[in-house]
Amino acid sequence: MAAVLKKRALAEYSQTVTQDAAHLPTKRLKLVKKPLPGAPSSLITVVNALDECKTSDEFLLLLLSISDSMQVGSAGVIEVLKKLVEHFKNEAESAVRVKILMLLTDIGLQNVSECVILAEEIINLIKNDTSHKVLAQGMNAILKLGMLVPESATSYHQKLVDVAKNYLKDSHHAVKCKCLEIIGTHVPLCSGNDSDKLFHLISSYFNNQDARLRSQAFSTVILLYERGFKVNPNIYVFVSDALKDDYEIVRSVALKLIWILGNAYPDNEILVPGSVHEIRLIDDAFGKICNGVTDLSMQVRTLACELLGTMKQISPKFLTQTLDKKLMSNMRRKRTAHELAWENVTSGEWASGKKWADDAPKELLKADSISLMSSGACGAFVHGLEDEFLEVRSAAVKSLCQLSISNPHFANMALDFMVDMFNDEIEDVRLKAIDSLREISAHIILRDDQLETILGALEDFSQEVREGLHRMLATCKMSTMGGLKMCVEKLLDNLKRYPQDKRSTYRCLQSIGRKHPELVVPLVPHFLSIHPFCDMAEPDVENPHYICHLILILNAAENSGTIISLLEPHTLRHYAYLRDTMPQFVPVLSLSETTGTSISRQMSVDESLAYLNNVISNLDVAETMTSIHISLLEMAKEQLNRLSEIDESVSGTAQFTALYIGAQLQILQILDRGFWVNPATLATQQQNTLKTNIQILLEYCLKLQFFFVGLNAEEQCAVKQFRLRALALNLVYIVKGSNSSALAPCHHFLTAVEEMQKDLSQNNIQPDGFTSLVFRDLSQIEEPKPGAVSRILTPILLSPKIASIPRPNINIRMSSANIIDPSGQGDTSLKFTAGLIMSVPFEAELTHLLDPSRIRLKIKYPDQRTQVVVPKPTHLKPLHYDTLNKEPPIGYNIRLLSSVLVSHQVWSEACNVEMNIALCVPEADIGKRKSSMDSNPTMLDLCAPVRVSIAPKPIKKTL
Fold it and tell me: pLDDT of 112-162, one tens digit each?
């Protein structure tokens, strides 16, 4: 019976399909959106069903039900259009006509070739309509459909503009707003008299009684400017008056237009109201935008603060005034003593003393009338930083940073205000202030009082804020030795309270030591407890505080030779120990021979590359027997692995080449024995060995594909061609030596062949011997069944030579992970009540990732159960490197801050739970096969697992 069922199942796949094998079709995935329940399947069916509706309500409900699931082909557009137009003309309800216009618009958006016909039809439909809602929807439809027509069709766009100008006579605001938007979007580019007429038409709505029309008029001017029109600066006066409008929609768009005019015409001179003096347009615009910082609306205040940071051509006196609430005396017009005396002489009148105040000046000047700048600019940033809304404060901090980057004098003035924001109640604002101060650190030197305020923020509970402060302190320059001492002591005190900040503190002190060698020199005896006469006890090299002192001093010694002579012999031994255990924090120092400590010189990149090229060249030239070739490959792999440990600059390239050689060794060993040709005749143990070797080969290919970043096109194609060979070998094994179905591996192999053809043609790369033979023979096959494909691949796998090793690329980096917490070195076991959940803090640093979304946490229990956890996106934070290293990172550098939830039943004794970081790779690359519970083939470990001792306790039964 089983044989009959098997024959019936195989009969389903025995149908012959004629297909042109020379040009394999591209497989595409078509996503079809399911219609709503009860809705018709196509728009044509719906339109035919409209005739059955008796009332407008039924008609509207039917239109609403099919609006989300509308599918119409290009062949049925004309028929649908005629039906809807007919119903539009006969419909008396305005809401139904609006819905019909919306459907016509959606049809035009789906069928771009018919958008001109639909726009013409809509113009004719609304010509005699009197409903304002219908006219507004018609203008909206014309606006959207007209945007699908190329800008080169100027006559068509001009026709739409003429239609919009005609409907500007309508009394409803919605119709007028849409008409102005059509004019701003579709009017052809013009200049001279035509441009003046256009702006005169739009500016006539600046003082309209409807605020929505005033706002749309200003928005239309902004739209024209973005399209390339030259805006007339004479409208600046009208726009300035709009800043006093009662409606915030008008004030906000007027602020944007003021900003545009100020940046477009910065050096134009305008007359100060109530005075004979002139100032630059950019300065006056800056003052008016500063007025927006004190606006009643939060949105306007936020916008004003954002715009201030993008105005780079401000005069220094106006810029500095934003940090002072008091109006400076030099901003007022004053007469000299000679002018006052000359007025008394020329007036012909002298004070007799008989009348009260007869010697008063002839002219009484008011402060508001003689100010050369708007009083709103006085303390604008102070108001923004003290605002009650975090959006305004955040925008003010960002703008203050942008202006300070390009102005060192302003940066020093803004330093105190930026430091005060470290005490803000909102964490995001504090973080933005910290990052802003780090960006302007090149222009500032911290005073001791400012440093004290900054260090006070280190007590923040948020780890992100503390680490942001560490990065900021690493980039700043300190002024005095006392300030440096206070900073180091505060960092060490903070390290006692938050031990998890150890690595961040190390990086901070590393950069501080490099930047302040002259301040570190007199503090060396204090930090290392060096006594001039007495020998002090040797500190513990594992003490984090002592390590912090060593990192600070040794990095300062890199730029100061005086420090090395002050160090004691045990300190130099500790330096050698730190160079081996944490070389990323301790530099290479040139120590004298008398110290007795020798540090090996790092190999240069040129020497490493030359050695790497030499190894690969020798392997390519060698043509010997397979056994000798395998031994040469093993030796080269061992040498390259050692090279990756010696020279970090070529570590990724050496690891990639070594892994590629390892994959070649694996496939040579499989092909050399010849068991794969007929695996069905092998014994069970030999067959399992062959299967394991093929699995290892496929995992090598996955690592080459997903573990390395910085590969060029040739190297990527080389990896994919090698993977194609491994997939072919896997397919032959499944067909000949396994009773499982080979349809899925065969389909996956053919898909890989198609993708390989595309990649090689796009990059103009010639295929290797194996790939070219696969392309040639598969193009001649009539029916790509697993058996036929396997028979073709068997002789091809035997004939060609293994492809040559790709030449080294210095930009290649290998993905890696370093688990910091838990360290796995603790002797105590974590105890919790069995059946409940215990949280274990988890911290890791992942470098040079190809795709961070593939990261998984893998927890393996002693009973061989494995749990895979997807970390939350909020737990993945960018890993900040040393700020002195200006090279851009290759790939993604991620810091994983999470917690692992562990739960189990009662154990008789404490056991180890393994925690690891792995990459989740596509399952199809390995092939569909069942695997044991202890090994998941789709998970590739990035590092060695960390063991945590856990002891679930039984539940205590109490009364």
Answer: 777 888 888 888 888 888 888 889 988 888 888 888 888 788 888 888 888
Q: What span, in angstroms and rounded, lies between the C-alpha atoms of 195 and 393?
A: 40
β partners of residue 830: 950
How much is the pTM? Answer: 0.72
Sign of the C-alpha dihedral computed for residues 767, 768, 771 and 775 taken in this order = positive
Amino acid at 799: S
CA distances to 27, 65, 761 from 754, in Å: 9, 43, 11
- State CA 162 to chain mean position distance: 44
Cα 293–chain centre separation = 30
Token digits for 667? 């496939």
- Residues 590 and 578: their CA atoms lie apart, in Å, by 15
Handedness of CA 319, 324, 325, 330 (dihedral sign): negative
For 375-425, write each residue's pLDDT tens digit: 556 778 888 999 999 999 999 999 999 999 988 899 998 898 999 998 888
How many whole angstroms separate alpha carbon 837 and alpha carbon 903?
A: 5
Classify 72 in phi/psi space as left (phi over 0), alpha (psi -120 to 50) or beta: beta
Q: Distance (Å, rounded) from C-alpha 383 to C-alpha 295?
A: 11
Residue type, 315: S
Q: Is the dihedral of CA 351, 355, 360, 362 positive or negative?
A: negative
Are 313 and 266 contacting, i.e. CB atoms less than 8 angstroms apart?
yes
Tokens linked to 710: 């910085």
Asked whether the beta carbons of 406 and 312 are under 8 A apart, the reply is yes
Give the Cα separation of 360 and 366 in Å (integer): 15
Give whole-number Cα distances, 678 to 501, 667, 788, 870, in Å.
Answer: 59, 16, 16, 41
Token reading at 673: 């024995």
> Which residues fall within 8 angstroms of residue 852, CB to CB, at 6 or more apart?
846, 876, 892, 894
Regarding beta strands 445-446 and 477-478, do their DSSP bridges make them parallel or antiparallel, or are they unpaired?
Answer: parallel
> What is the enclosing helix (H) or strand (E) of 185?
helix 173-186
Contact 949, 911 (CB under 8 A): yes
Rounded CA-CA distance 786/795 in Å is: 15
> From CA 688, how far away is CA 692, in angstroms rounded?
6
d(CA 665, CA 654): 16
Q: How would you class 881 by CB atoms within 10 Å of its CB: exposed for 0-12, middle for 13-18, buried for 19 or more? A: middle
